[in-house]
Amino acid sequence: MVRRPETTLQPRRGFGAIDLLLALVLAGVIYTIAATAARWTAPVTPSVAIDLAPTALPGYAALSVVRMAAAYLVALGFSLAYGRIAATHRVAERVMLPALDILQSIPILSFMPGVVLALVALFPHTNLGLELAAVLLIFTSQAWNLAFGFYQALITIPQELREAALVYQLDAWQRFWKLELPAGAISLVWNSMMSWAGGWFFLIAAEQFTLGDKDFRLPGLGSYLKVAADAGDSGALLLGLAALIAVIVALDQLLWRPLVAYAERFKMEQSEASAVPTSWVLTALERSALVAWLHEQVLPPLGERLDRVAARLFPPVAPQTVGKAGGRPALAVLLGGAGLVAAAAWGGWQLLRLLAELGPDDWAALPPAAGATFLRTAAALALGALWTVPVGLAIGLRPRWAQRAQPLVQIAASIPATALFPVLLLLLLRLPGGLDLAAVGLMLLGTQWYILFNTIAGAQAIPTDLREAAAVYRLRGWRRWRYLLLPGVFPYLVTGLITATGGAWNASIVSEYVSFGGQQYATLGLGALIASAANDGDYARLAAATLVMAAVVVTINRWVWRRLYWLAEERYRLG
To answer: pLDDT by residue (tens digit) across 456-502?
Structure first.
């Protein structure tokens, strides 16, 4: 891996306008964190009135961004740990990848009532329970694609770099900081943008939750949009959408575009590209005297202390331990495994008792429903890949296009697909396909962005020297796609497809069973079975349908995605 030479931070003669602005931003962040902590620990109120006045929007937007940021930080930490363990331990990989696939396919909103009630009961006197419930729901919409993306980046690290890390006897922390995190930088940045887009989708559900006569609403941008829509206040709804778009554009300029430009230096290439992504924020930071002082005086001693602590916690790896970790499991692992087996045995027994209530007709309805949902999922996946792969390659291979399209893609991906579904339903119910076609449309709206973001990341990760070699050998048309583009983005494309598949199975719950205009529309599928069973309180049928969905997802993971990941690791990684 060749890092681009970092720009030497040359401080100005004195404290300039950039440093003043940076100090004000830091002060604002500190104030926001303090205000958030005060609100989270404040006494809980029976109900919260959402103010639709335009003056309330800045405060609501700040509260929503804080919840999104808290969920993202938890998701990022989870993904780094989960992806690294799965990529470096063979036994853990066999369990963790199918488990991750099941987790991303489980309907998130189905367990929201239990999570909210449990956390509210745990913190009955403050807002902390409700805030943690909102953060947890948003976390479940952000974590899975990050974990898959980091896992994919680790298994495709060139073998010579792994061997170099062993020769220099890097401990686990040094290997993570100097090799693994840089290798996953591009994938993490683009999947982070996708995670935030998915988080906006679930923000309304996280902030506007009611259960019977109990009101669990939280002030924020999501609850503002929901209340405005319910009240039919089009002016407030447009202002809320404008505020959402403004936040997305501001985050793109202040956070994501600098990270995209910074991650460019971690590409695995021998020659530097002539055109690379740029960011005016990153350029301003490189001219800041405050950043230069932190870079020269504060960060080096902190980094040295962190390295000394990590060296004691993570001993160096012996050179003979090439490949994924194995060996004899520790006592803690054995005890933990025994506890999980005991819990699984108890849960399995209770599940069998519940499933015994079902009759032959209930079981006979499951296979055709699973087949119908599988076909819709496959159709949505194929339609999404059909346009996102060429568009993602076109954007990722052209930095100028990426800078222009990046905020537009984020805005489009952040618009809740369910908000557009009533319009699609009115149009598609009149066609011969009816709700079957409409269900595929909703799945497509919710899943295509995973493929697009990962394809863009894969295109940007293609080394410049490979592009130059393709130009020298005059690869054009299909030969360029076959020998450069598709192999270059293949690992990223697999990650995009597997996360899109999980999103499609998740979306089947709301796409196959729809309530609109005082009427209910349902079609054959596992999603419709789960939704109708939940509405009827038929827990035995709900458990059976969910179990069949999990079984189908695990089977697909075992026979499709795991083999494609193996192909990406063995054939399509650089080295």
So the answer is: 988 888 888 888 888 888 888 888 888 888 888 999 999 999 888 88
pLDDT at position 575, please? 64
Question: Alpha-carbon torsion 409, 415, 418, 422, what sign?
Answer: negative
Specify which residues 460 forms β-bridges with. Answer: none
| β-bridge mates for residue 520, sequence order | 515
In contact, 173 and 314? CB cutoff 8 Å: yes
Say what the pLDDT of residue 273 is: 57
Which domains are delineated in the chain? 17-268+276-313 (1.10.3720.10), 357-570 (1.10.3720.10)
**Cβ-contact 138, 68 below 8 angstroms:** yes
Q: How far from each other are the two terminal CA atoms of the chain, in whole angstroms? A: 10
Lookup result for tokens 């579904």? 421
Task: Determine the pLDDT at residue 2.
Answer: 46
pLDDT of residue 381: 92
- Return the SS3 of 71: helix
SS3 517: coil
Q: What angle do CA 344, 130, 224 make, to 5 degrees?
A: 125
Distance CA 220, CA 56 (A): 9
- 427 contacts: CB under 8 Å, gap ≥ 6: none
pTM of the entire predicted model: 0.80
Angle at 518 between CA 513 and CA 520, to 5 degrees: 20
β-strand pairing of 214-215 with 210-211:
antiparallel
The dihedrals phi and psi of 514, each to the nearest 5 degrees, come to: -125, 135
Confidence (pLDDT) at 452 = 92
* Residue tagged 């583009």 (tokens): 485
User: How high is the pLDDT of residue 211?
Assistant: 61
CA 132 to chain centre: 18
Sites in the chain below the pLDDT cut of 70: 1-14, 46, 107-114, 205, 209-215, 269-275, 311, 313-334, 336-337, 416-426, 428-429, 431, 433, 515-518, 574-575
Partners of 516 in the beta sheet? 519
**Contact 463/269 with Cβ under 8 angstroms?**
yes
pLDDT of residue 159: 83
Q: Residue 521: enclosing H or E segment and its boundaries?
A: strand 519-522
Q: How far apart are CA 313 and CA 13, in angstroms?
A: 42
Contacts of 227 (CB under 8 A, 6+ apart): 50, 52, 208
* Chain-centre distance for alpha carbon 189: 10
Hey, which residues does 522 pair with through a beta bridge? 513
- Residue 272's alpha-carbon distances to 5, 6, 269, 465, in angstroms, are 10, 13, 7, 8
Phi, psi of 15 (to 5 degrees): -75, 110
Q: Which residue has the tokens 């960060």?
A: 299
